[in-house]
Each structure stands twice: as structure tokens, then as C-alpha cells.
Specification:
single chain; mainly alpha
Length: 155
């Protein structure tokens, strides 16, 4: 499949004419133990496009790099359930690593834990800083839409 470039830096294959439909998204998010974190990461990473491919090779809804997908046992990165499961495992690993610090977790998801460690915090990478702010904004929107209070993320 020939990818076409998206302005966000990800590509879509010609198989993908649209992101997941709202019913598809609702079906996936009704799964047991589904958390808002997965939704905001999917929105920030792929815009809910199961066939998204980044310029650096990240794939699917949760934009898993091939090595990360293998590490978490993902067999098919373009199968939404596999990609979400692998992305959720990776996200959980990072949440645990950074003690629940959401900005650091998101920065590590986007730029890699090595870059976060080397920087001693969110790295000074424009794309990563914008990503963290964007996903935190999505989190606030989802929580407000659900009628919940918005807890402050730890700095």
C-alpha cells in the first residue's frame, strides 16, 4: 500500500479512507478495563486511523514502533485490538516507570524513555512538547465531557 503524507507527520495507507467510525471507537472503548488514557493517546497519535504510519515507522492506532510492538507481543500492528493491547501495555509500563507523572509518560511514549531520561524531564523537542500539551488538552476535554473533574497532572 502506498502511504500518503498527513500534516501531523503520520501517513495513511491507501486502504484507509477514514479513521475509525464513531461506532467502531465506541465498540473498542467498551472493552473491560478500557481507560481514557488509551483514547487520548490514540487521538493524539493517529487521529483514530488504524492504518496510520508515521515518517519514522510507527504504526496503527497507538502508533507503535515495530520494536515496541514486538516487545509487547503485538502480531499485527494494523489490527486495532492488537495495536491497542500493545499500546496499553506500553503506556502502563511508562506510567509505572514515571510514577504516574502524565507529562513524562506522554513524552516517553512520543520521544522514547531514553530521551526523557537524558533530558531529565520532557525533552526540548518541539514535536514532543506539542504532543504532550495536545494530549493533555484532549484529556481535559474528555473528562469535562464525561462530567468529571479535571485533576491536575503532576509537573
Amino acid at each position: 500500500f502506498a502511504p500518503s503524507t498527513r500534516s501531523s507527520g503520520a501517513s495513511r495507507t491507501s486502504r484507509s479512507t477514514a479513521a475509525l467510525s464513531l461506532p467502531d471507537t465506541r465498540k473498542i472503548t467498551r472493552r473491560p478495563r478500557f481507560r481514557i488514557g488509551k483514547v487520548i493517546v490514540m487521538r493524539g497519535e493517529s487521529g483514530f486511523d488504524p492504518f496510520a504510519i508515521s515518517r519514522k515507522g510507527a504504526q496503527g492506532l497507538m502508533q507503535l514502533m515495530p520494536a515496541t510492538a514486538r516487545m509487547h507481543g503485538v502480531r499485527e500492528s494494523f489490527r486495532p485490538s492488537d495495536n491497542i493491547d500493545g499500546g496499553a501495555r506500553h503506556l502502563r509500563m511508562l506510567i509505572d516507570r514515571y510514577g504516574g507523572n502524565l507529562p513524562l509518560t506522554l513524552a516517553a511514549y512520543n520521544a522514547g524513555a531514553g530521551r526523557v531520561e537524558a533530558a531529565g524531564g520532557v525533552p526540548d523537542i518541539t514535536e514532543t512538547r506539542e504532543y504532550v500539551l495536545k494530549v493533555l488538552r484532549y484529556r481535559k476535554q474528555y473528562l469535562e465531557a464525561e462530567g468529571g473533574s479535571v485533576l491536575q497532572a503532576r509537573p
